[in-house]
Protein 1
Amino acid sequence: MANALQFCATVQAASPVFSKRMHCQSSWHRPSPPLNYNYKFVATSLVLSKRSRRSLKVSCEAANVDLLETNKIDKEAEKKITCVMKFGGSSVASAERMREVAELILSFPNERPVIVLSAMGKTTNNLLLAGEKAVCCGVTNVDSIEELGFIKELHKRTVKELEVDESVIAKHLEELEQLLKGIAMMKELTPRTKDYLVSFGECMSTRIFAAYMNKIGAKARQYDAFEIGFITTDDFTNADILEATYPAVAKSLLGDWISDPAIPIVTGFLGKGWRSCAITTLGRGGSDLTATTIGKALGLSEIQVWKDVDGVLTCDPNIYPHAEPVPYLTFDEAAELAYFGAQVLHPQSMRPAREGDIPVRVKNSYNPNAPGTLITRARDMSKAVLTSIVLKRNVTMLDIVSTRMLGQFGFLAKVFSTFEDLGISLWSRELIQQELDHVVEDLEKIAVVNLLQRRSIISLIGNVQRSSLILEKAFHVLRTLGVNVQMISQGASKVNISLIVNDDEAEQCVKSLHKAFFETDISELEWECVSGNGSAST
Ligand SMILES: Nc1ncnc2c1ncn2[C@@H]1O[C@H](COP(=O)(O)OP(=O)(O)O)[C@@H](O)[C@H]1O
Ligand SMILES: N[C@@H](CC(=O)OP(=O)(O)O)C(=O)O
C-alpha cells in the first residue's frame, strides 16, 4: 500500500441518501457540508489506489451518479486544518512585524492554520480619513491627500523590505486612487462606498503577506473573504454574517486544501452583501468575527486571536496601566465585555465560537510566551468575584417618568414604538442631536423625559452569584470617592452589573475599583465587606 496513489473524488449525487450509502460502504468521509448535492470525498487512508478508483467509477455508473473528477491529491491533504490564527492591525503594522508573524506561524509545526489578517497598522483609519477629505477636496487635489500618501508609502515600503513583487498591490493602489477621485467627483461618501474603500486595507495586507510566505518557502494562498462565501446582511459598515456563510466558506477553503494544500491567508473584516453583492464590513475590529466564523465553519479545535496585549485584561490598559491579564473567561463573560465596549474583542465575535463550542485563545504577538486568555463555555467560578471592568464613555441616558404608567399596559410598547418609528436603535451608533430632540419630543407626549448626556457606563463583569459582595465593595469605593451612581442594572447574561456615573468621574472610579478588586486579596476583600473595615484607595 505504501506506493498507492491518493485521489480526491468529486461526485454529483442524485440524492443525499445515496451519498450517505456510499459514505458507509467506503471508508471515506465528507470534509465539506453538502451544497447542491455536490460532494467532495477524500480517502481517509491510502486506500484509493488505481484499482479503487476504477471500482468507484463502476459503482457511480451503477447508481447513476456522475463522477465529476478524481484528482490526485497531496499527502498533506490527509492532515486537516487545525486552527485559525487572526493577527490584528498592530501585529502586521510593518515589514518587520510581518516577518515576525510569519516566524510565529511557522514555529507551530503541528498546526495547519488558516490565517486571518487585518489591515496594516492604522490603514483603516487612514482610508476613512482619506475618503472624508476626498468628499470636499476636489478631484485634482486627491493625489495630495496626506493619508493616501501614508497608505501608499507604507505598503510600497513593506513590499520592498520583504523583497516581494510590487505587482501584488500595484493594481489595488491604482484602484484606490481612482476610487478617491470618484468620491471627490461625486462629493459624497455613502456607507456602501466607505466599505469598498476600507476593503483595500485587508486586500493589500493579505496579498503582501501571502507573497512573503511563498517567498520564504511556506506555501500560502490569498483569499478575499467576499469571494469565498462570507455572505452578510446589507448593513454597510456594520454587516452581520448570515448562516449560509458557514457551508460556503467550508466548501471553498477545504476544497482548495484537499486538492492543493497551501496556508490560506484570508482578509478579515470583509463580506459580501446578500442582496447588493457589494463588499460589506463587519464593524470596526471585525476581523475577530471573521476568525471565529472560520473556526465554526471548519469545526476547528481552536481559534487564536493575536493582539498587542497579553490577553484580555482586567481593564483597558489605556485607562489604567496596571491592568493584568485574565487567564480564563467564559464565552458569556467575553461577549458581555466586548458588548459593553472593551475594544479588545469584536462584540459579535463570541457568537460563532459559542455555537461551535470552540475555545478562543487571546494571545500577544509581541510576547508569544505569555499564556494569554483562554475563553471557553464554562470555567471554575468557585474563586471568581470580579473578572474585568469595562468603561463606555459618552453615553446618553433617557430618564422617562410617568405616573400614568403605574398599572397600565402598553406603556413600554409606546416607548419602544417611538424608537422604531424614528428608526433608532439605542446601541448601534451615535445619535445626532436632532435625532435625540425628536425622541424627546415624541416621548414627552406620554411621559416626563430627561435627557442626561455625558454619562459613562462602568460594567463590572464577573461572578454575579456574588453580586452582593461586588456591589457592597463597589459602592463603598464610590462613596469614598463621593460619586453618586445614577442607575444600576444587571445584564441578562448574569455576568455583568452596570453602573452609570458622570463622564468626568468615570476614569477615577475605574482606577479605584481596579485597586479595590484586583490589588487586594480576595479573602481580605470579603472580610473588609463583612466587618465594614475597608477603605477605598484612590
Ligand atoms: N480589557 C481589555 N483587555 C485588553 N485590551 C484592551 C481592553 N480594553 C481595551 N483594550 C485595548 O484593545 C487593544 C487590542 O484590541 P485591538 O486594537 O482591536 O487589537 P488588534 O487590532 O490587534 O486586533 C489593546 O491594545 C488595548 O489598548
Ligand atoms: N481593519 C479593521 C478590522 C480589524 O479587525 O482591525 P483590528 O484587528 O486591527 O482591530 C479595523 O481597523 O477595524
Protein 2
Amino acid sequence: MAPPQGSRAPLEFGGPLGAAALMLLLPVTMFHLLLVARSGPARLLGPPPYLPGLEELWSPWALLLCLTWLGLQAALYLLPARKVAEGQELKDKSRLRYPINGFQALVLTALLVGLGVSAGLPLSALPEMLLPLAFAATLTAFIFSLLLYLKALLAPASALAPGGNSGNLIYDFFLGRELNPRICSFDFKYFCELRPGLIGWVLINLALLIQEAELRGSPSLAMWLVNGFQLLYVGDALWYEEAVLTTMDIIHDGFGFMLAFGDLAWVPFTYSLQAQFLLYHPQPLGWPLASFICLINAVGYYIFRGANSQKNTFRKNPSDPRVADLETISTATGRRLLVSGWWGMVRHPNYLGDLIMALAWSLPCGVFHLLPYFYFLYFTALLVHREDRDERQCRQKYGLAWHEYCRRVPYRIVPYIY
Ligand SMILES: NC(=O)C1=CN([C@@H]2O[C@H](COP(=O)(O)OP(=O)(O)OC[C@H]3O[C@@H](n4cnc5c(N)ncnc54)[C@H](OP(=O)(O)O)[C@@H]3O)[C@@H](O)[C@H]2O)C=CC1
Ligand SMILES: CC(C)CCC[C@@H](C)[C@H]1CC=C2C3=C(CC[C@@]21C)[C@@]1(C)CC[C@H](O)C[C@@H]1CC3
C-alpha cells in the first residue's frame, strides 16, 4: 500500500467538512433542479414540488441504460484513433499516451442514434426517465469512486495526485487519490471527462427537442437555439480534445467522487436544464431577439476559442507564426507566459468567453424565471473558484514571473471589473 503523500498540500474545497457537504449538496441540488424544471412555478429557490419516493428514483432499466451507454462510449474510445497524443511529463519523467477520437465518437453516436430512431427507438421517452437515469448515474459514480479509491491503495506513490492524499478518508474519496487511474491503456479520467457526460448532455437535449416537436407540432425557436449552442460547445470540446490534456483536472487533480459525479451525472442532467425548462415552459421568441442572442453566443465563442487556441498553439510551438509576434515574459522554468493578445487582456480570457456563452444559453428561456440562469450562476462560482486554484498553482510554479504577469495584466476574468 502506498503511504499517504502530499499531506502538506493545502486542503481545498473547505477540507473534509466541505468535501462531505459537497458530496451531499451536489446530488441534492441536481435532483432539486430536475424536479423543479418540470413543475409549474419552476422556482429555483422555492421548495421542490414533492419529494420523490425510492420507487420513482430506482429503476433497473435506467441502470441498464446507463451502463449500456458507458459500455458504448468505452467501445468507441477503444476504436482506432486518428492520432495518439502524449500528455504532460509526469513525476517519474514518463508521458502517458491518449487516443484522440472524441469527435469520431460523437459522430458515430449520432449515426447510431439516427439509425435507432429510424428503426423505432423511442428517444422522446428519455425525458420521462430523467429522474431514474440521474439516480442510476449518481449510484454508478459513487460505486465507481469507491473502486477508484480502492485501486489507489495499490498504486505506487509516484502515481498519486498532489492533492487528494491528505490521509482523511472523506476528503481523499471526494478529490481522488490516483492521478491517472488506468487499466492497460484505458484512462478512466480522460474517458469520463469528455465522452459519456458531454455526449449524453447533447443526447438528452435532442430527446427534449423531439418530445417538444411531438407535443406541439414542431420544436420552438428557443429550443433550437439552446440545442444548437450547446451542440457547438460539445462539438468544439471533442474537436479540440487534445487541449483537455493540459487542464488542471488531468494534470493536477486525482480522479475521485468530484470528477466522477461531475462528469457522469452533473454535466448531462444539470447542463441540460435550459432544454428541460423549455419543454415544460415554452417561451415565445422572435427572430430579432433570437439573432441578438446568436450574436452574444458568437462573441463568447470567438473569445473562448481564440484564447484557448492562442495558448495551445503557443504551448505547442512558441515560434508558430500565429503567436511568434506576441509579447511574453520568461520564467525560471524555461516556459514563457503570454502578456499580449488574448492573454494580455485578462488573465483568463477563455473563462470570459465561456461565461458570455453561458448567458446566451439562458436568454432564450426569457427573463421571468431564475431557474434557466442556474447554469450561469453556478458556472460563475465554479470559474471564480477555479481561477483562484489555478492562480495558486501558477504562483507556485512561476514565482516572481507570475507576480510580474499579474502586475502587467491586473484583471482576472472581466476587464476593469474582476
Ligand atoms: N463548462 C464547464 O463546466 C467548464 C469549462 N471549462 C473551460 O475549459 C477550458 C480550460 O480551462 P482550465 O483547464 O481551467 O484552464 P486554462 O485553459 O485557462 O489553463 C490555465 C493554464 O494556462 C497556462 N497559462 C495561464 N496564463 C498563461 C499565459 N499568460 N500564457 C501562457 N500560458 C498561460 C497555465 O498553465 P501552464 O503555464 O502550465 O501551461 C495555467 O495553469 C476553459 O475554456 C474553461 O472555460 C473549465 C471548467 C469547467
Ligand atoms: C460539480 C462539481 C463541483 C464540479 C464538477 C466539475 C466538472 C463538471 C467540470 C470540471 C472540469 C470540466 C471541464 C469540462 C466539462 C465540465 C468539467 C468536467 C469541459 C470538458 C467542457 C468543455 C470545454 O471545452 C473543456 C472543459 C474542460 C474542463
Protein 3
Amino acid sequence: MMASQRPLIDMDGAYELRVCCMGAGYVGGPTMAVIAKFCPRIRVVVVDISAKQIARWNRGDLPIYEPKLEELVAAQRNKNLFFSTEIDRNIKEADLIFVCVNTPTKATGFGAGAAADTKHVEACARMIAESATSDKIVVEKSTVPVHTAEVLNTVFEANSSTSVHFEVLSNPEFLSEGTAVSDLMDPSRILIGGNSTPSGQKAVETLVSIYEHWVARDKIITTNVWSSELSKLVANAFLAQRISSMNSISALCEATGADVSEVARAVGTDPRIGDKFLQVSVGFGGSCFQKDILNLVYLAESCHLPQVAAYWRSVVDMNEYQKNRFSKLIVSKLFHSVTNKKIAILGFAYKKDTGDTRETAAAAIIKALVAERANIHIYDPKVEKEDMIDELQYQGLAQCDIETIHVASSPYEATNKAHAIAILTEWTEFTALPYDRIYQDMLKPAFENNINTTPFSFFLTHPTPLSVLIFFFHRHYEIMFDFLKRPTLEDELFKMKFTAKSLLRNAKKCEKNQVAAKAKLKKAIEQGNMEGAKIYATNAIREKNQFLSYLQLSSRIDAVAARVQTAISMGKLKQNMSGVVKGMDHVMDSMNVEKISSTMDQFEKQFEDLDVRSAYMESAMNSTTAGATPADQVDDLIQMVADQNGLVIAGQLDDAGSVGTELPLQASAAPSKTDELSARLAALRKA
Ligand SMILES: NC(=O)C1=CN([C@@H]2O[C@H](COP(=O)(O)OP(=O)(O)OC[C@H]3O[C@@H](n4cnc5c(N)ncnc54)[C@H](O)[C@@H]3O)[C@@H](O)[C@H]2O)C=CC1
Ligand SMILES: O=C(O)[C@H]1O[C@H](OP(=O)(O)OP(=O)(O)OC[C@H]2O[C@@H](n3ccc(=O)[nH]c3=O)[C@H](O)[C@@H]2O)[C@H](O)[C@@H](O)[C@@H]1O
C-alpha cells in the first residue's frame, strides 16, 4: 500500500505520520523543528552521517546559529522531534523522507566549477532503497539540478524490491539564513512538484496536509516536478541578479556622481520592480547564490543554449568584479600600500545573524589584502576560528598565508593599533561600538589636531580621504562607499573649517615674518644700507599683505561655513547647491587660493536665494594679493621705521634706486608673490 494511502494514524495511535529528514544542517534542522512545532501528531526524526552534528543537536549546543532556533528546538526535542545517527532504522520507520543534504558545486571532473555535485543526494537514494521495506514518499528539499527526481527514481528501481513504491516529490526550500525560523513559520509560498499520476497527486496531498497545519492553502503552489526543481534555481538566480545589477550601477554612480541609494530608491518604488534585494554590497556570499546560478549556467550549456548560459554567468562575473573592486579600493585608500599595515576585519559571516561563512565575500577581500602583505586581524561574534580557516582555505588561501592571520576575541583587540577597519558583515553590534574609544587606540597619520579630536562618529558618516579609517559596511552602501560618493555638504563643511584653520595658521606665520623683516629693516637703516632697507621693507609689506590675504580668506570661508551650517540645520538647502558642492572637494584639497576664492563666490551666490547672506569682506583676496608692492609704500615704510627709531635717512632713499633693480642675489631669487603663496600652501598641505 502507498504511504499516502495509509490511514494517517500510526499503529500505536501516537502519530499521524512519521517523517525522517536526511541532513541535519541549516535547512534540515530548522525546517524539521518548525514541522514538529506545528504538527504535534507527526513524529520527526532528523538523521545525519555526522555523529558530531547530531550530538550537538541533542546536547542543545546547536551546530548552527540561527535566531530563535535554540528555544524552538528545546521545546520540541524528545517530544516529537528527535536527532539520530540511526539512518537505516529511521528510513524503515518513515512514511515520508525529506532529503536535505548539501549539493555543492562540483570541484573536479565533468562540469567542475559549475555543475552541482549530487553525490550526497544519490547516496541518500541508495540508503533509502536499501533500507526501505514499505512505501515511501521521498521529498527533494535540497536544491538540485533539473531532472534529479529522475535519477532518484532510477536508483530506486534498480536497488529495491518491486513490492515497495517510491514517490518522488520536489519541495525546494526558500528560507534565508539569519531569518530561517520566521521564514519557515511564515513562508511567502510553499512549492511542491509532483507527478500527475494518481499516486503522484496523493503524495502531493500528503505533503500539502503537513504544511496546511500552519500555511494557508492558497500559499501552497503545486506544479510538475521539473517546474519545481527549475523554479528554485531561477528564484535564486533572480535574487542574485538584482544584487549584481545594483552593484554594477554602484560603479557607474561613483563615476558619475549619482548616489546609488537614491537610484535604488527611485527605481525600487516602482511596484513592478520592487525595493527588495537592491542593497549594494561588497558582493553576495552564501552557499547558494553562486552555486545555484552556476547550476543554471551548466543546465543552459547542456541544453546548447550558450547565450542563456552567458547571460546568467555574467551575474557571477559581476559579483567577482565587485569583490575585486572593493579590495583594490581599500589598498588605494591606504595610500596604495597595505604592506605590514594592520587591517581589522569586523565580520566574517556572509551576512548577519548567521555563523555561516560559505562563499563569504570577506574571505575574498582578506585573500586580496594578504596578497598585498597586509596584517589581518578578524573579529566575528558568531564565527568560530576553524570555520574561518576552512573557508579561507576553500577560497584558495595558502596555509602559510593563513598562519599570518589573527583571530581576535573582541572588536577592541582586532582594532587596537590598526591602520584601518573594514566592516564586512552588518552585525547589529557593530553599529553600537564606542568608536571614539576604538579610534583613540588606532594608529593615525600626522593629522592636524582638530582631526584627531573630531568625534569618531564623524568618521562613521563622514569618512574623508585624510582618514586612514575605512568603514565598509557590508550591504550598507551609504557608509561603505561614502567617501567615494560626491561629497555631501557636511563633508564640505568639515573641509571648509579645516581649510579656514590652516589659512589662519599661515596668516600667523606671515605676521611673524613681517615683524622679523621690520627688525632687519631697522638694522639696515642704522647701518645706512638703504638698498637692503628697501628689500626688507618690500618683504615686510609682502608679508603683511599675505597675512591679510590669509586672514580674510579664512574669515570668508568661516562665514560661508556658518551659513552652510545654518542652512543644513534648517533643512533649507536647495538642489542647485549640489553642483557647487561637487566641485568643492578638489578645490579645498588643492589649497589654491584663487580657486577657493572663486568657489566661495559661487557658494555665496547660491546663498543669496536662501536669504542667509550676510556682510563679509568683499574682494578680500583680489585687493590684497593683486599687483606688485608700490615703491612709495616701500619708501613710506622705511620712513616710518626710521621715524619710530629716531634715525635719519634724508636723501639716501633716492640714491638706493627702486626695489627690484639693484637687489642682492639672495633677494632677487625670492619667489614672486603668487609663487611664494602657492609654495607656502603646498608646504602647508604636506605638513
Ligand atoms: N542553507 C540555506 O540557507 C539553504 C539551503 N538550501 C539547500 O538545501 C540543501 C542543504 O543545505 P544546508 O542545510 O545548508 O547544508 P548543510 O551542509 O548545512 O547540511 C547538510 C547536512 O547533510 C549531511 N549529509 C550529507 N550526506 C548525508 C547522507 N548521506 N545522509 C545523511 N546526512 C547527510 C551533512 O553531514 C550535513 O550535516 C542544499 O541543497 C542547499 O542548496 C536551500 C535553501 C536555503
Ligand atoms: O537557497 C538558498 O540558500 C537561499 O539563498 C538566499 O538566502 P541566503 O543566502 O541565506 O541570504 P540572503 O539574504 O539572500 O543573502 C545572500 C547574500 O546576498 C547579499 N545581499 C542580499 C540582499 C541585498 O540587497 N544585497 C546583498 O548584497 C547578502 O549580504 C548575502 O551575502 C535566498 O534569499 C533564499 O530565498 C534561499 O532559500
Protein 4
Amino acid sequence: MSELSYARYGKDNVRLYKVHKDQETGVQSVTEMTVCSLLEGDIDESYTAADNSPIVATDTQKQTVYILAKQNPVTPPELFASILGNHFISSYKHIHAAHIKITVHRWTRMTVEGKPHPHSFMRDGAETRVVEAVAREGEGISIRSGINGLLVLKSTGSAFYGFQRDEYTKLPETWDRILSTEVECGWHWKKFASLEDVRSVVPKFDTAWEAARTITLETFAKENSPSVQNTMYKMCDQILAAAPLTEAVEYSLPNKHYFEIDLSWHKGLKNTGKDAEVFAPQSDPNGLIQCTVTRKGKSAKL
Ligand SMILES: O=c1[nH]c(=O)c2[nH]c(=O)[nH]c2[nH]1
C-alpha cells in the first residue's frame, strides 16, 4: 500500500556552551550554540517494522555533540559541524548522511573602564551565525554558512520609484523612505572532499563571515538604495568577490514597512512628505525579497 520514501531523525535544540581559559593571561573566551543533528541511512526498518536495531538514539547523538565539543574546537562552527557529520558517517556503517545545523549566539566581550573584560560578555542583539553541513558518504561535505536575525534600519537614503503602475497600484513613488529589514544571508561553499579538506581552509570561514557582515552593513548604510532587490544583488556580488571558495550567495530580506501618519485632521498638524517625523511601524504584512547569485558561467543547482 505505502512505502517510506524519505526519512531522517536526530536531536534538535541541543544547547551547548564551551569556555576556553587562557592559563597565562587569565582571559576566558566563550561560545554558545544550538545544534541540530539529523541522520539518514539504512534505517527504514525502524519506521516500517519496529526494528530499533539501526537506531543511533537521538540521546546518543546529543551525548556525541557534548563529547566531540570537549575533544575538539567548536569554532569556527563550519569545522565543528563537519567534525560531527564526519563522525556519524564514519562511526556507523549504516548511516550514510548526517545533516548538522549549528546556530551560534552572540556573546560579545564587555568593555569595562575602557578595557576588554577578561570574563564578562553581553548579548548585543538577536543576530546569529548559522552553519548547515551535510556529510554524505562518498560525496564529501557540503556547507552553507550564514547570518540570521540582523535587524537594520536607515532613516533616509532609500528610494522606490519607476515600478509597474496599473489599476491595482496604490503605492506612490518615493525618493526618500525608511528602509528596514532583518537580514537572512547565506553563502554556499564549494563541495569539500573530506574533513581534511575542510580543515585545510579553516581561517577562511571566519574571514568570509566577517566580510559578509561588513559588506551587508556597509552597503546598507552607504548606498542610496533604489530597491531592496538591487541592494541585495550588490551585496551578493561583493561577497562572491571577497570569498573565492564560495559558489553562491543568497539573501532573504523582509521589507519592514514604516507608514506615514496623516495628522492634518488635528489642528492642521503637518506630518507627511518632508514634514513626516512620526511613523507607524508595521509588523505585517511585509514585503519579502529573495535572491541567489552565483558566479557567471556556473549553474545555480544547489
Ligand atoms: O524595494 C522594494 N521592492 C519592492 O519590490 C517593493 N514593493 C513595494 O511595495 N515596495 C517595495 N520596495
